[in-house]
Amino acid sequence: MTEVPKVFKEVCLSCHSVKSLGLKGGGSAPDIAEILRRAKKYGGFENYIKEKYKTDPYEFFLYPSKYVPTMATVEGRVYSKDVDELLVFFNKIPAEEGEDFPFLLLIPLLILLAIALLKLRKKKRFLIS
């Protein structure tokens, strides 16, 4: 099991959750796995912070209200050593999968709909003749 840093439990969990690890947070912020899913496009969490917020993860976590105003409540509660622990922790969390899953479910439904429409069209032609 992934070890959850104390700072995550005391600071981050008030808003963020990690459902894949059974950590239910306050719910006012995205699940960490969802953030990590977005970060995959950038090559990982650290690159995501660098690209999206134009800063490094240390600056982001030490002065978060500069980048995400709603994170003002955590200002001054995270220290450099905590950032190291958070980065290790985030790298161990599987990124949320299944974002495209509902679209995959639509494919068989669309195929069935197309077949039904074709049959209906043939039936109408038969009735008109």
Describe the structure.
By secondary structure, this protein is mainly α. It folds into 2 domains: 6-97, Cytochrome Bc1 Complex, Chain D, domain 2 (Orthogonal Bundle); 99-129. It is built from 6 helices and no strands. It has helices at residues 6-10, 32-40, 45-53, 57-62, 80-92, 101-128. Helix 2 (32-40) packs across helix 3 (45-53). The longest helix is centred in the last third of the chain and has 28 residues, at 101-128. The protein is elongated. It starts with 5 loop residues before the first helix and ends with a helix.
Fraction of helical residues:
40-55%
E-strand count: 0
CATH architecture of the largest domain: Orthogonal Bundle
Provide mean pLDDT, rounded: 85
Silhouette: elongated
How are the secondary structure elements laid out?
Elements: H1 6-10, H2 32-40, H3 45-53, H4 57-62, H5 80-92, H6 101-128
In short:
The chain is mainly α and 129 residues long.
Keywords:
54% helix; 129 residues; Cytochrome Bc1 Complex, Chain D, domain 2; 0% strand
